[in-house]
Amino acid sequence: MARVVLVGLPGVGKSAVAAQLGIRWGCAVVDTDAEVTQRAGIAVAELLRTHGEAALRALENDVLDDVVTREVVVATGGGIVTTASARALLREENTVWLDCPDDVVLNRLSDGDRPLLGDDWASSIRLLRAQRSPWYEEVSRHRVDSTGELADVVARVAATIEATES
Prior knowledge:
Radius of gyration: 15 Å
Number of strands: 5
Oligomer: single chain
CATH topology: Rossmann fold
Order of helices and strands: EHEHHHEHEHHEH
Helix content: 55-70%
Largest sheet: 5 strands, parallel
Shape: globular
Strand order of the largest sheet: 2-3-1-4-5
CATH class: Alpha Beta
Distance between the termini: 17 Å
């Protein structure tokens, strides 16, 4: 079982928080987007454009299935909750939903290749929040506000997880 799995919209800080938690706890960190990129041989954005979302989600599910068997911190892609098989896996894990307001998300996503967001990122984030929030809630044992400085967010997540482990 993974030490913790982080879920949430793009831009909430999953990768950055996971990296710092790995340092804090002295354990490995797996970013599912990076693992998908390695396995596919192309970036997630390019995989989406060339093979479609279904191909991404299938590969993402394979990665998740592999990594949750290890004592690691996992940062997931924002859309991992869109498949029933991934949600089933996530419900069995110590899953934390990182969340913050849309304006914070958009500020953090100021650059990058995000094909799923289209041309109007603000509208797309609102739509993704409406679609995915019930799934994030379904799979998560905890919800942590990821607004603010990275060190503060890491401390909130760590305190939440450490309180449940004792």
